[in-house]
C-alpha cells in the first residue's frame, strides 16, 4: 500500500508540479525580458497549470514537505493575498539588505502572490506595471522561492521514499497515520477555507467573504476546489494519475468487518459532492457566491456530509491514531 | 514510633502482641476470649495477618526505587517529547474535570520549572533522599498536571496519582536510602504487612477491574475492538501473519479477560513467578500493538512488589551499591539497635495510626465502589461514557467521532459553523468529538467566546457522528438541542441520542 502511495501518487504529483513550476519560471523569465501580451498570456497559462498541479500535492504535508516553520502548502499556496504588504515589499526590494522572503508573511508570495502580480489588473495595465524593475525582481524572487522549495521536496522524496515505505503499521508516526492525517487535513481545508470561509459559513462571520476565495484574481477557484477533491478521491482509492486502481485505504478497509459497506457509502457520498460541484455555474466563484449563493453552499453541505465517513468511520476502522505524536492512549 | 526487635516477636504468640502495638485499634477486640464463632476468629486472624504481621521491608523499598525510576523516565520523556508545550501551553482552551474547573494552567516557564522539579523529585524518591518531602511534592505536582486538561486522562496517570498519594504514608525509605546514609534516619527491616498489601491491592484492582470490564458482549462475543485492532498489526515481522487469522481476535479477547481476572491471584500465590512471566508477555505484546507509552513498563516494574521478600533481598545483595548502603545503615543506626538479632520493625505511632486507618478504609471502599457508579446511569456506558473514567477501563473500545458545532446569533438568527481546529489541538478535538461531557464543555466555551466577540444571545448545537466498535457512525447528541441550556453535572445527560446498533 505504502509503495503504491509513494511511487504512484506522491512522487509523481510532486514531479508533475515541479515540471509546471519550471515552465512557469521559464515563462516568467520571458515575460520579464519582454513584457507584452503574448508573454503575459503564456505566463498566465503556465501559472494555471502550476496551480492545478499543486492541488494534487497539498495533502502530502509530511516528511520532506514539512519543516519546523510550516509545510509546503503554507509556503507556496497561502491565500488570500495581502495586497498592501505585497506592494510594500515590491517598493522595498531595491533597498540594500532587504529580502522580501525573509519573514513569515506567506500571504505575500507563493502561487497566489504570483497570481496577484499577473492577474490583478487587465493585461495592458499589468504590462505597463512591469516596466518597474522592482516588480520584475519581486516576481522573479517569489517564483524562484516556489521553485527552490519544490525542487527540495522532490529531491528529498527520493531519499525519503524508503523511510516512508518502511514505516508501516498504524501507530502515530507511521506512514499510514501521517498520510491519513494529511489526507484528512487536505480535505477539511478544501471544505473549510476554500468554500466555507468565502461563503461566510464560519461561526462569527456576519456576511460572505467572496474576496477570500482561493485564486481570486484568476477566477479558477471552482476548478481548483474540484481538483483538490479529485486528489482526495485519488488518495482514498490509491488511484494513480492514469486512473489505475492501486492498493489504497479502500482496500485495507474492505478487509475489515463492515469495511465494504463503508467504502460503498463513502463512494456514493463522494459522487454527491461531485454532482454538487458540477452544479456550481462557470465563472468566478467570488461572483457566484454573491449571485447564486445556494449552489456553492449546497456543495459545502455535501462535503460536510462526507466528513463523518472519513473522520469517524474510516479512521476508526483503519485503527489509526488520528492524532499525531501528541500523547499516549490506554 | 515503637521499635521492637525481631527476637522479641519470633514467637508466634508475640506476633499478636506486636500487632496490638502496631495496629493499636484492634487490640481490645482480639485479645478478648468471648468470641463465639471460630470462623470469626479465623477471619480476624486472616486480617491481622494481612495487616499487622511484620514482614520484611524489602518489597516496599524495591517498589519505591522502581517507582522513582519509572517516574524519572516518564517525566523526562514527557518533556523531551515537547508535550509540555503541546498539551499545556499551546492550547487556547482546556477541558476540566467536573468539580475541578478552578484548576488553571501556569505559564510556560512555570510548567517547565514544575516538570523539572518533578524530575528531581522522582530522583529523590528513587534514592530515598528527603523522601517524604519528595513524594508529597510529586503527588501534588503530578496530580495538578493531570487536572489541567482531561483530554489527556489515562488510567495509568490516575494510578500514579493514587500510588504516590499512598506512598506518602508508607515507610518506603526506611532501608537502602540516602536518608539513612546521609541524613542518619534510623533504618528498619520489618514493616506491618498492610504497607505492602496496600500496593498489591492497588495494583490488583487495576487488573481485576480491567478484567471485569471485559466481561461483556462486545468483547467476548463480537471480539471487538480487537477485530479492528489486530489486523492493523499484520505488518509486524515474524508474528504479523498471526493477526490475519480470523479467530485470533477471539483468542486474544478471551485470553486478555482471563489474564486480567486471574493475574492478581496468581501473583499472590506460590506460582507468582509464572504470573510475572505472563505479565511480561502480556505487556510486551500490548506495548508493541498499541500506542500506550509508559504503561506496560510501569506495570512490569510495579508487579515485583508481589514477589516473596527473599527475591528482593537477593536482588539487593546482588548490587554492590546497595550492599554498601546496608553496611552504612547498619553502622549509622547501631545506637538504636538492641543487643539481640538487630532486626527492627517499623511501627506507626498510635496517634497517627487511627486517622490513617480510617482514611485507608475509606480509600479501599472508594476504590472498590467508584468504578461501579456507571450502573446508576441509563444507556450504554461506552456510548454515553457516564461513569467511564476512573474505572480501569483500559483499551476496551474503538471509538471515534467528528463533531460539527453550529453557533447561532440570537439577534439575527444567522448560524455559523465552527472550525474546531481554530480552538483545539488534534488530540483535544479527537477526544472531544466522542465524549459527551467534553462536547458540552466545548459548547459552553464557544458560547462564551462568541458572546465576548459581541454576539448577542448565542446558541450552540452539535452534529456529532460517532462510531463505536466498528458500528456505522451515528448521532451522539441530539442535534436540535441548544447545549448552552444544559450544564454539566453528575446527573444523566438527557440530550444524548440512544445507541442503537
Encode the helix/strand succession of chain B as letters: EHHHHEHHHHHHEHHHHHHHHEHHEEHHEE
Range of strand content of chain B: 5-15%
Number of strand elements of chain A: 2
Sheet having the most strands of chain B: 4 strands, antiparallel
Point out poorly predicted stretches of chain A: 322-326
Distance between the termini of chain A: 28 Å
Biggest sheet of chain B, strands in spatial order? 6-5-7-8
Secondary-structure element pattern of chain A, one letter each: HHEEHHHHHHHHHHH
CA-based shape of chain B: globular
Largest sheet of chain A: 2 strands, antiparallel
How many DSSP E strands of chain B?
8
List keywords for this structure.
heterodimer; A: 330 residues; mainly alpha; two-stranded antiparallel ribbon; 2 strands; globular; B: 501 residues; alpha+beta; four-stranded antiparallel β-sheet; 8 strands
Topology at a glance:
The complex is a heterodimer of chains A (330) and B (501).
Chain A: H1 2-33, H2 37-54, E1 66-67, E2 70-71, H3 72-76, H4 83-92, H5 110-119, H6 123-129, H7 133-166, H8 175-196, H9 221-237, H10 249-254, H11 259-278, H12 285-291, H13 294-318
Antiparallel strand pairs in A: 1-2
Helix pairs in contact in A: 1-2, 1-7, 2-5, 4-7, 5-7, 8-9, 8-13, 11-13
Chain B: E1 4-5, H1 6-9, H2 12-23, H3 27-31, H4 38-51, E2 54-56, H5 58-80, H6 83-89, H7 108-127, H8 131-148, H9 155-167, H10 178-181, E3 190-192, H11 193-214, H12 217-220, H13 226-229, H14 248-268, H15 272-289, H16 295-302, H17 309-318, H18 320-332, E4 344-345, H19 350-369, H20 381-384, E5 399-408, E6 415-417, H21 426-432, H22 436-452, E7 459-468, E8 474-475
Antiparallel strand pairs in B: 1-4, 2-3, 5-6, 5-7, 7-8
Helix pairs in contact in B: 5-7, 5-16, 6-7, 7-8, 8-9, 9-11, 11-14, 14-15, 15-16
Characterise this structure.
The complex is a heterodimer of chains A (330) and B (501). Chain A has helices spanning 2-33, 37-54, 72-76, 83-92, 110-119, 123-129, 133-166, 175-196, 221-237, 249-254, 259-278, 285-291, 294-318; strands at 66-67, 70-71. Chain A is 65% helix and 1% strand. Chain A has 13 helices and 2 strands; from the N terminus they run ααββααααααααααα. In chain A, helix 5 runs antiparallel to helix 7 (133-166). Chain A has a two-stranded antiparallel ribbon. Chain A is mainly alpha-helical and 330 residues long. The longest helix of chain A is centred in the middle third of the chain and has 34 residues, at 133-166. Chain B has 501 residues and is an alpha+beta fold. Chain B contains 22 helices and 8 strands. Chain B has helices at 6-9, 12-23, 27-31, 38-51, 58-80, 83-89, 108-127, 131-148, 155-167, 178-181, 193-214, 217-220, 226-229, 248-268, 272-289, 295-302, 309-318, 320-332, 350-369, 381-384, 426-432, 436-452, and strands at 4-5, 54-56, 190-192, 344-345, 399-408, 415-417, 459-468, 474-475. In chain B, helix 5 (58-80) runs antiparallel to helix 16 (295-302) and helix 8 (131-148) runs antiparallel to helix 9 (155-167). The model of chain B is unreliable at 4-35 and 327-341 (pLDDT under 50). The interface between A and B is large, with 47 and 56 residues.
Amino acid at each position: 500500500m505504502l509503495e503504491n502511495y509513494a511511487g504512484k501518487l506522491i512522487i509523481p504529483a510532486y514531479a508533475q508540479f515541479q515540471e509546471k513550476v519550471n515552465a512557469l519560471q521559464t515563462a516568467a523569465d520571458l515575460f520579464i525580458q519582454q513584457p507584452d501580451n503574448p508573454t503575459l498570456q503564456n505566463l498566465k497559462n503556465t501559472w494555471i497549470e502550476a496551480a492545478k498541479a499543486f492541488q494534487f500535492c497539498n495533502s502530502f504535508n509530511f516528511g520532506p514537505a514539512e519543516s519546523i516553520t510550516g509545510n509546503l502548502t503554507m509556503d507556496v499556496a497561502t491565500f488570500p493575498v495581502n495586497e498592501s504588504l505585497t506592494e510594500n515589499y515590491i517598493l522595498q526590494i531595491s533597498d540594500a539588505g532587504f529580502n522580501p522572503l525573509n519573514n513569515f508573511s506567506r500571504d505575500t508570495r507563493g502561487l497566489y502572490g504570483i497570481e496577484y502580480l499577473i492577474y490583478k489588473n487587465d493585461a495592458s495595465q499589468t504590462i505597463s506595471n512591469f516596466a518597474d524593475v522592482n516588480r520584475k525582481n519581486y516576481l522573479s524572487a517569489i517564483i524562484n522561492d516556489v521553485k527552490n522549495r519544490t525542487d527540495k521536496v522532490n529531491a528529498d522524496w527520493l531519499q525519503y521514499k524508503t523511510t516512508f515505505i518502511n514505516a508501516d503499521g498504524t501507530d502515530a508516526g507511521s506512514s499510514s497515520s501521517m498520510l491519513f492525517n494529511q489526507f484528512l487535513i487536505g480535505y477539511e481545508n478544501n471544505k473549510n477555507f476554500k468554500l466555507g470561509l468565502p461563503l461566510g459559513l464560519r461561526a462569527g462571520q456576519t456576511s460572505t467573504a467572496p474576496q477570500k476565495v482561493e485564486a481570486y484574481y484568476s477566477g479558477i477557484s471552482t476548478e481548483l476546489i474540484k481538483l483538490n477533491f479529485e486528489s482526495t478521491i485519488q488518495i482514498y482509492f490509491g488511484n494513480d494519475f492514469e486512473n489505475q486502481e492501486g492498493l489504497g485505504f479502500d482496500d485495507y478497509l474492505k478487509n475489515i468487518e463492515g469495511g465494504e459497506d463503508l467504502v460503498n457509502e463513502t463512494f456514493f457520498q463522494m459522487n454527491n459532492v461531485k454532482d454538487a460541484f458540477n452544479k456550481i455555474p462557470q465563472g468566478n466563484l467570488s461572483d457566484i457566491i454573491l449571485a447564486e449563493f445556494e449552489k456553492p453552499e449546497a456543495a459545502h453541505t455535501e462535503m460536510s456530509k462526507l466528513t463523518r465517513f472519513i473522520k469517524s468511520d474510516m479512521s476508526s476502522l483503519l485503527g489509526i491514531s488520528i492524532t499525531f505524536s501528541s500523547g499516549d492512549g490506554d | 514510633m515503637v521499635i521492637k526487635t525481631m527476637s522479641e516477636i519470633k514467637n508466634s504468640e508475640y506476633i499478636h502482641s506486636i500487632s496490638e502495638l502496631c495496629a493499636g485499634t484492634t487490640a481490645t477486640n482480639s485479645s478478648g476470649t468471648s468470641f463465639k464463632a471460630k470462623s470469626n476468629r479465623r477471619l480476624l486472624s486472616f486480617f491481622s495477618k494481612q495487616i499487622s504481621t511484620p514482614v520484611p521491608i524489602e518489597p516496599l523499598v524495591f517498589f519505591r526505587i522502581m517507582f522513582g525510576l519509572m517516574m524519572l523516565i516518564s517525566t523526562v520523556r514527557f518533556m523531551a517529547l515537547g508535550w509540555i508545550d503541546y498539551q499545556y501551553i499551546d492550547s487556547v482552551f482546556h477541558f476540566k474535570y467536573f468539580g475541578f474547573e478552578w484548576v488553571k494552567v501556569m505559564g510556560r516557564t512555570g510548567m517547565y520549572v514544575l516538570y523539572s522539579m518533578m524530575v528531581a523529585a522522582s530522583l529523590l524518591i528513587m534514592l530515598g533522599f528527603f523522601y517524604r518531602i519528595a513524594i508529597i511534592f510529586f503527588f501534588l505536582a503530578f496530580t495538578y498536571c493531570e487536572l489541567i486538561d482531561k483530554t489527556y486522562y489515562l488510567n495509568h496517570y490516575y494510578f500514579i496519582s493514587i500510588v504516590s498519594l499512598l506512598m506518602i504514608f508508607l515507610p518506603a525509605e526506611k532501608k537502602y536510602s540516602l536518608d539513612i546514609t546521609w541524613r542518619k534516619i534510623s533504618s528498619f527491616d520489618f514493616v506491618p504487612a498492610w504497607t505492602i498489601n496496600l500496593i498489591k491491592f492497588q495494583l490488583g484492582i487495576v487488573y481485576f477491574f480491567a478484567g471485569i470490564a471485559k466481561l461483556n458482549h462486545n468483547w467476548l462475543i463480537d471480539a471487538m475492538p480487537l477485530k479492528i485492532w489486530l489486523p492493523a498489526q499484520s505488518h509486524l515481522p515474524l508474528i504479523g501473519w498471526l493477526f490475519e487469522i480470523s479467530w485470533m481476535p477471539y483468542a486474544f479477547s478471551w485470553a486478555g479477560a482471563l489474564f486480567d481476572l486471574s493475574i492478581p491471584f496468581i501473583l499472590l500465590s506460590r506460582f507468582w513467578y509464572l504470573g510475572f512471566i505472563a505479565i511480561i508477555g502480556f505487556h510486551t505484546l500490548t506495548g508493541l500493538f498499541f500506542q500506550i507509552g509508559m504503561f506496560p513498563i510501569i506495570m512490569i516494574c510495579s508487579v515485583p512488589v508481589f514477589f516473596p521478600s527473599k527475591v528482593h533481598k537477593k536482588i539487593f545483595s546482588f548490587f554492590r551499591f546497595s550492599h554498601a548502603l546496608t553496611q552504612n545503615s547498619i553502622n549509622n543506626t547501631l545506637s538504636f539497635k538492641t543487643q539481640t538479632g538487630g532486626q527492627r520493625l517499623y511501627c506507626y505511632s498510635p496517634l497517627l495510626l487511627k486517622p490513617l486507618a480510617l482514611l485507608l478504609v475509606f480509600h479501599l471502599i472508594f476504590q472498590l465502589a467508584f468504578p461501579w457508579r456507571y450502573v446508576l446511569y441509563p444507556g450504554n456506558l461506552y456510548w454515553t461514557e457516564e461513569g467511564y473514567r476512573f474505572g480501569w477501563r483500559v483499551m476496551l473500545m474503538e471509538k471515534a467521532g467528528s463533531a460539527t458545532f453550529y453557533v447561532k446569533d440570537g439577534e439575527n438568527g444567522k448560524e455559523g459553523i465552527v472550525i474546531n481546529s481554530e480552538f483545539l489541538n488534534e488530540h483535544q478535538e479527537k477526544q472531544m468529538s466522542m465524549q459527551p461531557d467534553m462536547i458540552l464543555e466545548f459548547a459552553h466555551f464557544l458560547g462564551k467566546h462568541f458572546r465576548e466577540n459581541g454576539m448577542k444571545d448565542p446558541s450552540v448545537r452539535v452534529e456529532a457522528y460517532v462510531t463505536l466498535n466498528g458500528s456505522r457512525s451515528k448521532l451522539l447528541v441530539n442535534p436540535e438541542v441548544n447545549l448552552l441550556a444544559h450544564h454539566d453535572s453528575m446527573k444523566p445527560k438527557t440530550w444524548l441520542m440512544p445507541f442503537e446498533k
